[in-house]
Specification:
- This protein has a domain at 1-40: Erythroid Transcription Factor GATA-1, Chain A.
- Helix content is 26%, strand content 11%.
- The chain has 2 helices and 4 strands.
């Protein structure tokens, strides 16, 4: 079975199944993926419900999580 690194798309051989950075090819690709999650480049979204719309934004915030000016 052939695998590809999800970050750089480099093909990995079948011995990659037991590699220390699986599913990535290297520590660098693993760290790049983590950085993308931390920078919010990846998101897991859920459909917006009526309840979410009724609740509005949390106190002390306005659009995009910026604090309110008082």
């Amino acid at each position: 079975m052939r695998f590809t690194c999800p970050t750089c798309k480099r093909p990995l051989d079948s011995s990659a199944a037991n590699a220390p950075y699986r599913p990535f090819c290297s520590e660098r690709c693993r760290a790049a993926d983590l950085g993308s999650w931390l920078d919010a480049a990846y998101r897991i979204s859920a459909p917006v419900s009526e309840e979410d719309l009724d609740e509005g934004l949390p106190d002390g915030t306005r659009g995009r999580g910026e604090p309110e000016d008082n």
